[in-house]
Amino acid sequence: MDPRLEKYAKLLIHVGINVQPGQTLVINCPVDKAPFARMLTREAYLAGAREVVMRWSDQFISRETYLHAADEIFDSFRPWQADMLNTLAREGAAFLSIDSSDPDGMNGIDHSRMVRQSRVFGPAVREYREMQMADKVQWCIAALPEENWAKKMFPGVPEDEAMAKLMDSICATMRITEDNDPVEAWREHNAALNDRKRKLTDFNFKSLHYKNALGTDLVIELPEGHYWDGGNSTSARGVKFNANMPTEEIFTAPRRDGVNGRVVSTKPFDVGGVLIPRFAFTFQNGKIVGVEAEDPHHRELLEAEIALDEGASYLGEVALVPYDSPISRMDTLFYNTLFDENASCHLAFGASYPTVTGGADMTEEERKERGLNQSITHEDFMVGSADLSIVGTTRDGREIPVFVDGNFAI
Ligand code: ZN
Ligand code: ZN
C-alpha cells in the first residue's frame, strides 16, 4: 500500500475535518475505497471521536438508479433520510466526504431526474445544508484516485500507470511528499491564505471589475460589511477545519442584485457528467438574462441548471485564485471541480456563503436584506485567465488593481 495514504488519512482527520474528542464523525465514502475509510475511522477514534457513522456510496448503483428506477421516485423522498442528516448536524457532528468517481460516470442519464430529485430533497435537508454552508458544523471534501478518472486525465497510458500519476497529482496538490509532515505544511499554507483574506477584507471594496481578452467585462458589487473567507474556517464551536482539500481560493459573496455585464468561462463546466467546454452568461441587475454556448444542447443544460429555483439565476460566490497557484502551474485538467476550481478564479451561481459580518446567525430574511443570494443549488464555474484584470473600487471611490495579468497585484 502507498505509504502516502496513511499521511493523507492523518491530514484529513487532523486538518481537513479536525474531529474533536467526543464528537461524532460522519464519513461518506465509495464502497470500493473501504480500505481508506478504515484508515480514516481508525485515525478518527485515535483522535477521540465519539462515534464514526459510515455512509457508503457507489457511482455505478447511482447511475443504474437514474437510468432504470421508476420515474415517480424522483419526485419523492423518505423523510428519515433527511431527518438523519438534519439530526446529525443539530447534534454537532462533522461531515467528511471522499470523492472517488468517474467524471463521465453519469453520462447518458436523464438529467431532469437529478434536477427533480434535488428539488424535493434540497428543501427537506435545508437545516443540514444551511449549517454546512454557514460553517456551523465542520465539513470536508477530498478525493482519491478512480480508474476511469485516471484514464481520462492520462489517456494512452496503462491503467496502473495512470492511477499512479493521478495519485502523484493529488499528493502534489495536497502538499504530501514521502518525507514531509503535511499537517505542518498545511498550517503554513492556511496562515498565508489568512493573511491575504485579511488584506482584502480591509479594503471593503464596493465593487470588482473583471476584464479579459475573451470578452469578460463584468462588474460585481459586494455587500456592505462583507469579508473574505477561504483556507480554513471556524465552526460554531470554534473548531478550525478545511472544507475543501486542496484549496487555494479566497472568496466572498456578491450583492445578489449588483452584477452587470458579461462573463466567459475559461475551463470545462460539468453538468451531470456532460462537460461544457465554454459558455458565457450575461447579467442584468444580478440576474442571468443571457446564456451562450456553441452547442444548443449545452445551452439547454445550462438553462435548466439556472432555472432550478429563483436564486439559481443569481451569483452566490466570487473566488480569487492566482493564475500561478500550484494547481494552475501543473496545467492539468482534473475534470473535477474540487481541483479545477483551485486552478482558476471562479464564480458560482446559486446560494452564497453568509460572508457578511454576523451572517452565520442571520435569518434567511436578514441575509436577503444584506444582499446575499439563496438557492438550493451552488455551482462553481471558472473565469480566470492569464490576462485577467480585476480592479476594485473602494467605498470612497479609489480604484485599486486587485489582479493584473491573472495574479494578485496587492
Ligand atoms: Zn470557491
Ligand atoms: Zn463554490
Please characterize this protein's 3D structure.
The chain has two domains: 4-173, Thermophilic metalloprotease (M29) (Thermophilic metalloprotease-like, 3-Layer(aba) Sandwich); 204-233 and 241-408, no CATH class. A hairpin with a 5-residue loop joins strand 8 (233-234) and strand 9 (240-241). The chain contains 13 helices and 21 strands. The longest helix is centred in the middle third of the chain and has 22 residues, at 182-203. An eight-stranded antiparallel sheet has the order 15-14-11-6-5-19-20-21. It has a five-stranded antiparallel sheet with strand order 7-10-16-17-18. It has a four-stranded parallel sheet with strand order 2-1-3-4. It is globular and about 55 Å long. Helix 1 crosses helix 2, helix 4 packs parallel to helix 6 and helix 7 (147-153) crosses helix 8. By secondary structure, it is α+β, with helices and mostly antiparallel strands. It binds zinc ion (2 copies). One zinc ion binds at residues 249, 251, 317, 319, 341, 346, 380.
Summarize the structure.
By secondary structure, this protein is of the alpha+beta class. The chain is 34% helix and 24% strand. The chain has two domains: 4-173, Thermophilic metalloprotease-like (3-Layer(aba) Sandwich), CATH 3.40.1830.10; 204-233 and 241-408, no CATH class.
Radius of gyration: 21 Å
Fraction in beta strands: 15-25%
Can you summarize the main beta sheet?
A: 8 strands, antiparallel
- Poorly predicted tracts of residues: none
Which class of secondary structure composition applies to the elements?
alpha+beta
Question: What's the number of helices?
Answer: 13
Percent in helix: 25-40%
Shape: globular
Number of domains: 2
What small molecules does the structure contain? Answer: zinc ion
User: What is the arithmetic mean of pLDDT?
Assistant: 95
Strand order of the largest sheet: 15-14-11-6-5-19-20-21
**What's the total number of strands?**
21
Measured between the Cα atoms of the first and last residue, the distance is: 44 Å
